[in-house]
Design brief:
Number of domains: 1
Radius of gyration: 14 Å
CATH topology: Rossmann fold
Number of helices: 6
Number of strands: 5
Strand order of the largest sheet: 2-1-3-4-5
Shape: globular
Largest sheet: 5 strands, parallel
Strand content: 15-25%
Helix content: 40-55%
Structural class: alpha/beta
Order of helices and strands: HEHEHEHEHEH
Distance between the termini: 37 Å
Length: about 150
Amino acid sequence: MYTSKHPTVDTEGETAAADMTNPDPLNLVVVDDDEEVRTALRRLLRSMGHEVRVFASAEEYEENPIAADCLIVDLRLPGLNGFELLERLRLRGFTTPIVFITGDGGPSPNDPTARAGTPPLAKPFDEHDLIAAITRALSANHERAP
């Protein structure tokens, strides 16, 4: 379980991660300005057998938008925030599902993510919640596909 604002993987987390290993690895992208969060998520998701690329900002990802099955994006990034990144990617035709994460405890009722149907995961979160959010995002995207 993550015990601070920054996700970490303890020995129990490694066991849980091994139990959730996906036989069909996903290509995942993490966009977060916090290096500790990027490193922890990369380690966790790779331990489950997934391919993971990390970016320190929305602008960095936007400069080199690689193909991914799902993006995991911090909602409150300096500069271009997570929701603005989503809007810009959608305008360019990207349909990749996004899981938002935030250290701010989630959106307010007026937050654009509430209207977008993409409730963020509030840090700290555990690996089960993250995997469930990724699964929901992939399923919702698959249901919307023509």
